[in-house]
Amino acid sequence: MTHEHFDAIVVGAGPSGNAAAYTMAQRGLKVLQIERGEYAGSKNVQGAILYSDALERIIPDFREEAPLERHVIEQRIWMMDDSGHTGMHHRSDDYNEQKPNRYTIIRAQFDKWFNRCVREIGVTVLCETTVTGLIADEHRRIIGVQTDRDGDGIFADVVVLAEGVNGLIGQRSGLRKELRPEDVALAVKEMHFLPQDVIDARFNLRGEEGVVIEAMGTVTDGMIGTAFLYTNRESISVGVGCLVSEFAKSGEATPHGILDRFKAHPSVRALLEGAEIKEYAAHLIPEGGYRAVPDLVGDGWIVVGDAGHFVNAVHREGSNLAMTTGRIAGETIANVLGSCLACTRDNLQAYVTQLQETFVMKDMKKYKNVPRMLEHGGHNIMDIYPRLLNRSAQTWFRVDGRDKKSKESEILRSARQARGLTGLLGDAFRLARAWR
Amino acid sequence: MSDERVENRLFQNRYVVDVGRPHIRVRPHEVPSRELVAMTRVCPAGCYSQNEQGQVEITADGCMECGTCRVVCAKTGDIEWNYPRGGYGVLFKFG
């Protein structure tokens, strides 16, 4: 291995690394993939939702073999106060289609499968090996990696950094800045196991149907964050995530305390009752948006997935951005090497140009102001509005002898009391501007 | 609110501990920084604790390798953070 030269080395075997490695091997490149876990997926954490489109463009018939849990037929979005929630539910039988659009998955199992596909198409995969640094030549071009196994290093024309959000290699090599606590969320998650028929009954599901709940509100104690609950076949993934900066400055909140609060909430408790918890996991999510995306290419290196901060926090999308950036990076490298060119910054720039044309950069740009809006008005959105909304709903739905006109006035009055007219208009304006 | 201990949760997880080679170290200090003290609360695995002298210590055996402490303490230089050697550390069954 020591003196073998590869066309490309991929650091990491998550969705972006697997997508990049698969794409390059499919196009005939000699690829080495290095993963620090015992197997691909053993270090990876996600909710997790798989978006079919991104994977279909890499492995069109993935549904035949991939370990999928349930396809999503219902989405619930909740604004929670302390005693309940108000929200939007969307469900349709149309999602029971030949090729469903979204699935719940269990990442350790899914990544293992994806990586098996990567190996089968010809990539050399080295597990239980941690990349400790990059090797540069005298012109500061990256020409290989140093691992904790091999003193001499391993060399390649290009290194694909698919090392995830907590990407030490890129940071320590000075390719990108240190993460800011404002730009990453800490998510904790538990796996709650229940018999399949119990989950079916509790969530009104049949067969392989699944439900996704995304929630926000007072459950995060005023911190900017969200909670989620996803149905798997025989388990429920339940978790919460808040910005690290919020956790760091907050007085008393602990990540597991917030998770317990969500689990004990009257809207959630009965859904989880009697479940056996089999795992507790924690992970960072890059949520800084477009402004936090680092330099993506340089001489001999390219960044994909979470390491490139590719997450659409508003839509809770990440794995699809990871796979898409991995695929396009792989295609770019194959094109460059196929034209007998070197993987210089200029030649790899085609990757960035192409991302601009896809939903990846278009969506990242669309929401580029959302993180800033949350930094300034987050408390209102996480606390005041959910309370207001739930109180208003109660005022509206309770039948107590008061006339409807008075109820309307009360709802408007409480909104004004909570934020003031200027505050309400300002919030609406800021939201509209950030959403644009 | 049920605030079940972190230790009970970690008990469900699988780890391969690299005995004698902790991947996170806290720089020796007299008085801990605000960030370091925050980690006794923010670390999702409860790895950080304060000793009787008020200094912050780490036992990284239950670490889930999220990197939160590294980000929080990046500017203070309180922590030396590396990934465990290949094959060691947390091993998620589900992730």
From TrEMBL, chain A:
Protein keywords: FAD, Flavoprotein, Oxidoreductase
Listed GO MF terms: FAD binding; oxidoreductase activity
Chain ranges of the FixC-like C-terminal domain: 371-436
Cofactor(s) the protein needs: FAD
Record InterPro entries: FAD/NAD-bd_sf (IPR036188), FixC-like (IPR039651), FixC-like_C (IPR059103)
Protein purpose: Could be required for the formation of a functional nitrogenase Fe protein. Probably accepts electrons from FixA/FixB and reduces a quinone.
Family in the record: Belongs to the ETF-QO/FixC family.
Record-given protein name: Protein FixC
TrEMBL record, chain B:
Keyword Aminoacyl-tRNA synthetase applies: no
Keyword Iron: yes
Domain 4Fe-4S ferredoxin-type residues, every copy: 54-84
GO molecular function (one): iron-sulfur cluster binding
Keywords: Electron transport, Iron, Iron-sulfur, Metal-binding, Nitrogen fixation, Transport
SUPFAM superfamilies reported in the protein's UniProt record: 4Fe-4S ferredoxins (SSF54862)
Origin superkingdom: Bacteria
Residues spanning the signal sequence: none
Task performed by this protein: Could be a 3Fe-4S cluster-containing protein.
Family: To ferredoxins from P.putida and C.tartarivorum, ferredoxin I from A.vinelandii, ferredoxin II from D.desulfuricans.
UniProt name for this protein: Ferredoxin-like protein
Lineage: Bacteria, Pseudomonadati, Pseudomonadota, Alphaproteobacteria, Acetobacterales
